[in-house]
Amino acid sequence: MYLQYIRKINYLVFELSSFMDVLHFVSTVILITASGALAPGPLFFATVSHGVRLGAKSGFVFSIAHSIVESALILLLASGLVPVANESIIKIAIGVAGGVVLLFFGAMQIRGALTSNYRETTQKDVTTQNLLLTGLVFTGLNPFFIVWWLTAGANLILLALEFGSFAGVAFMFLCHVWIDIVWLTLVAHFAKMGTNVIGRSWYRVLMAVFGLALIYYGLTFLTSTLPF
User: Which of 13, 30, 33, 195 could form a disulfide with 176 if both were Cys (CB 3.0 to 4.6 A apart)?
Assistant: First the structure.
C-alpha cells in the first residue's frame, strides 16, 4: 500500500513538473514574441490606414497574411535553412524590395490624401484578396521582421525543437499567432471608431501622416540594408 502511495506521489510530481515546463515555455514564447508583434511597423500603419476605412476586417485579413509568411519562415528556419537566410545578398534584396514598395505605397497614400477627389474607401472598394496581398507584401518584404526571426526568433525555434521537435515548433507558433490576430484586429477596429469621431478633414490629414510613416520605414529599410 505504501508503495502505491509513493508511486502516486511520484506520478503527481512528474505531472506537475511537466505542467510547469509547459507553462514556462508558453510564457516565454508570449513575452518574447509580443515585443515584436506589438511594436509599430509598416504592417501596423497599414492596418491603421485600412482600418479607418474598413474596420476590423482589414486587421483580421492582415493578421492572416502575416501569419502565412511567418509560418513559412518559421518552418524554413526549423528545417535548418538559417545559413541561406543569413546570406547578405538575400538580406539586401529583401531590404531594397521592401523599401521601394513602402516608398511607393506611402507616396500613393499621400497623393490620395491631398487630391481633391479623395474619398473614404468602402467595404466594396477593397477586396479580401487585395488586403491579403498587401499583408503578404508588407510582411514578407520587411527586413526587420526577417532579422528578428533570424536572431531572437531563432533562439525560440531552437527551444521549441528541444521542447518537442516539430510538434514543439507548431505549438510555439500557436502560442504566438493569436497575439497577431487579436492585436491587428483590435487596432483596425479602434481606428475605424476614431475615424467616425474625427471627421473627413482630419481623416485626410491622418492618411497623409501614415503615408509619411510608410515613407520613413521605406527609407530606413533602404539605408539599413544597402552597403554604403
Answer: 33
Helix (H, G, I), strand (E, B) or coil at 180: helix
Query: What gap in Å lies between CA 37 and CA 59, rounded to an integer?
Result: 13
The alpha carbons of the chain give a radius of gyration, in whole angstroms, of 22
* Length of the chain measured in residues: 228
- Over residues 121-152, the pLDDT tens digits come to 544 556 788 899 999 988 888 878 887 787 77
In the block, which residue shows the cell 491587428? 184
- Could you give the 3-state DSSP secondary structure of residue 125? coil
From residue 210, alpha-carbon distances to 40, 65, 175 in Å are: 12, 20, 30
Contacts of 85 (CB under 8 A, 6+ apart): 76, 77, 146, 150
C-alpha cell at 92: 539586401
**CA-angle at 135, arms to 100 and 82, nearest 5°:** 75
